[in-house]
Structure formats: structure tokens, C-alpha cells
Design goal:
Structural class: alpha+beta
Number of domains: 1
Strand content: 5-15%
Largest sheet: 2 strands, antiparallel
Shape: globular
């Protein structure tokens, strides 16, 4: 089904290309280890499990729901910058 919707695209600010989780080669274990010392903020729009699934089992471009909290968006950027 084709839809038009609003969301946040996660991108590399150097190349201006969208992040493709398939090419990050992150594992669930790496992400969970990071989260032990850097807990993810609570966000009803985007859960810890959704983040892990998106980064380890998806391809294409990585995006976050439109109603994701700013704190969560910042957390995702910090996590990715620390792990890649």
C-alpha cells in the first residue's frame, strides 16, 4: 500500500545520505551493551525493542515516527555515533 506520511529520516550529516541499517552491521548485543550505560529515554512513540529491531533487522533507510520525542531522536543519534 502506498502512503504519504511524516517521519524523521536518520542521515549522515557529512554525506547527506540516509542511514541504511543493513550496512551498519550492528548486533543486538552491541546495542544492549551500549544501553546498559546509556539507558534509552521512555517514549510511547518508539520503544527500545523497536530501535533494536530497526537497527538489526531492517534495510532501506532508517526513520523514526513523526511523534518521536526530541530526547529520543537525540539518543538515537548519540547511540549511532558511538557504535559506528
Amino acid at each position: 500500500m502506498i502512503r504519504v506520511d511524516r517521519f524523521y529520516v536518520v542521515y549522515d550529516s557529512t554525506t547527506m545520505e540516509a542511514v541504511n541499517p543493513e550496512y551498519l552491521s550492528l548486533t543486538r548485543e552491541e546495542i544492549e551493551e551500549y544501553m546498559k550505560n546509556h539507558p534509552m529515554p521512555e517514549d510511547p512513540a518508539y520503544s527500545k525493542e523497536e530501535l533494536i529491531e530497526d537497527l538489526t533487522k531492517s534495510s532501506g533507510f532508517y526513520c523514526l515516527p513523526n511523534d518521536t520525542k526530541e530526547e529520543t531522536r537525540e539518543y538515537v543519534a548519540e547511540l549511532l555515533n558511538a557504535l559506528i
